[in-house]
Amino acid sequence: MKFPKVFPLQEIAALINCPYVGDNNFPVHGMNEIHVVEPGDIVFVDHPKYYDKALQSAATIILINKEVECPEGKALLISDDPFRDFNKLTHHFRPFRYASAAISELAVIGEGTMIQPNTFVGHHVRIGKNCIIHSNCAIYDNTIIGDNVIVHAGTVLGADAFYYKKRPEGFDQLLSGGRVVIEDNVGIGALCTIDKGVTGDTTIGAGTKIDNQVHVGHDTVIGKKCLIASQTGIAGCVVIEDEVTLWGQVGTTSGITIGSKAVVMGQTGVTKSVEGGKTYFGTPIEESREKLKQLANIKKIPEILNKLK
């Protein structure tokens, strides 16, 4: 998430009331999670296990809960609770804004696009040309939709990420300030849910077709011309490359990559990254031929045992 302008470090530190290490005017361009950070971004880290990863990342401002040696060319924001203060910054730069109309006056809707009754279109949404948005959809603030997109009834684009920190008193949610980006010629079925990024974009590539009742988690990137069948659940921060097929009831863990032109058979649990150009099946996931051989061999066990008697 980029800020509306470049801010000096001392001004950002004042917003969250914390000390800092670095030049007063050190430039701060935005804030992001570690997998999408760029120079000028703030990244937060609150566990020693991840200190080095954060300090060595592309981020140039590290919001951290311990005063450590500051790498050259970077700055530190020292906080007793980086998770809390990251939320403060998200709330400041991208607060929730009430909408008083079904279609916000700040939304931009392209020529030839049709929006059916009872659909909500939030602030700063951009919808391209010749789209059809069916009834009872919710398109949250800042969502971007390309040309020739069809979204069927009851779908939600841009709900919050499922991202929590466990506290003694309960679960504390990490606020979502990212977006959903739907590229041209995408089809999205009924009752789908596509969560926005925490700070970046959840992206559906051009020409991809998504069946009914599919969930896509925060910051996931789905490539071009993919097919995703009903009841598939895709976790956060997943990369699905171009022309992948996921059949019904596939589930994935977070942070994995599915290679280009891979085919994942129904009810498979994608527990790790897999190469493209192959067909997979089962939980844990394996190439389908190998998995089917194993299942065939299992059926032979009673016969083998009888021969041993």
Helix content: 10-25%
Q: Under the CATH scheme, which class of the largest domain?
A: Mainly Beta
Structural class label: alpha/beta
CATH-derived architecture of the largest domain: 3 Solenoid
Task: Write down the overall mean pLDDT.
Answer: 96
Largest sheet, spatial ordering of strands: 8-11-14-19-22-25-28-31-33-34
Low-confidence stretches: none
Q: Helix and strand layout, with pairings?
A:
Blueprint: E1 2-8, H1 9-16, E2 20-21, E3 27-31, E4 41-45, H2 51-55, E5 61-64, E6 75-78, H3 82-93, E7 108-109, E8 114-115, E9 120-121, E10 126-127, E11 132-133, E12 138-139, E13 144-145, E14 150-151, E15 156-159, E16 164-167, E17 170-173, E18 179-182, E19 187-188, E20 193-195, E21 201-204, E22 209-210, E23 215-216, E24 221-222, E25 227-228, E26 233-234, E27 239-240, E28 245-246, E29 251-252, E30 257-258, E31 263-264, E32 269-270, E33 279-281, E34 286-287, H4 288-299, H5 301-308
Parallel strand pairs: 3-4, 4-5, 5-6, 7-10, 8-11, 9-12, 10-13, 11-14, 12-15, 13-18, 14-19, 15-20, 18-21, 19-22, 20-23, 21-24, 22-25, 23-26, 24-27, 25-28, 27-30, 28-31, 29-32, 31-33
Antiparallel strand pairs: 1-3, 2-6, 16-17, 33-34
